[in-house]
Amino acid sequence: MKNLSKIGKKLNLLALSLFVLVPPVFAVPPSQTTMVETNFQIPSLPDMISFLIKMFFFVAGLAALLYLLMGAFAWVTSSGDKENVKKAQDKIQAAVIGLIIIVFVLAIMVTLEQFVFNKKFCLGISCPVSFSSYVLLK
């Protein structure tokens, strides 16, 4: 117990010496602060929705490619075992089907945005999000 009290006293002394040696951060009066100009703007809701949609497709494509690589690695390391080769082939097949679905959905969305809605109703893939005229706010 004596050792713990000695350690506590040393820690208190160390904390006190650090407080004295290091000046407080908030010691500068507010009149001496300077303003820093940045070019940062808070993104609008359509910009955020467009970013989220694009990020979703990016992550989905990345996951499909990663799954494809895992299947290829499983096939290479299967050492000829028919069951492991079949599992690896199934992984590769699922990854390729996933990539095809992603490309198909992107093609449908671009077609809808460009040709069906004539860029008047966009979801953020080929043109900026613009659906505010279709949303009824009361």
Describe this entry's structure for a reader.
This protein is mainly α. Helix content is 63%, strand content 0%. Helix 2 packs antiparallel against helix 3.
What is the rounded distance between the termini?
Answer: 70 Å
Uncertain ranges: none
On the 0 to 100 scale, the average pLDDT is: 80
Helical content (DSSP H or I, runs of 4+) = 55-70%
Structural class: mainly alpha
The biggest sheet, with number of strands, parallel, antiparallel or mixed sense and barrel status, is: none
Please trace the helix and strand order, writing H or E for each element: HHH
In one word, what is the shape?
flat
Set down the secondary structure blueprint:
Elements: H1 2-21, H2 45-76, H3 82-116
Helix pairs in contact: 2-3
Brief rundown of the structure:
The chain has 138 residues and is mainly alpha-helical. It is 63% helix and 0% strand.
Notable traits:
138 residues; 3 helices
